[in-house]
Design brief:
With 81 residues, the chain is mainly α. It has three helices and no strands.
């Protein structure tokens, strides 16, 4: 991945964070990976590597703060790995 691609990916992450939908987008991508058997192993690996890099970028640049207004509304906490 070149610097332009990396900058574009970070810009997309930043826009999802500002819109408040990064975690929903991440959940959707992971669900697609879980369900779609047609995704090649290489593509699956590339997607997971990209998501790992996204999460490392988020770790370095953001903090998670609990919503006091229950905007997230989901009480699902079934697994922590």
């Amino acid at each position: 991945m070149n610097d332009g691609d990396e900058t574009g990916r970070k810009d997309k992450i930043d826009s999802h964070v500002k819109a408040g939908d990064y975690f929903g987008t991440l959940a959707t991508i992971l669900d697609i990976l879980r369900q779609d058997a047609k995704i090649s192993p290489k593509m699956r690996k590339d997607i997971l590597n990209g998501l790992r890099n996204d999460l490392l970028y988020l770790q370095d640049n953001y903090s998670i703060v609990r919503n006091n207004d229950n905007k997230g509304k989901s009480d699902r906490v079934e697994s922590c790995f």
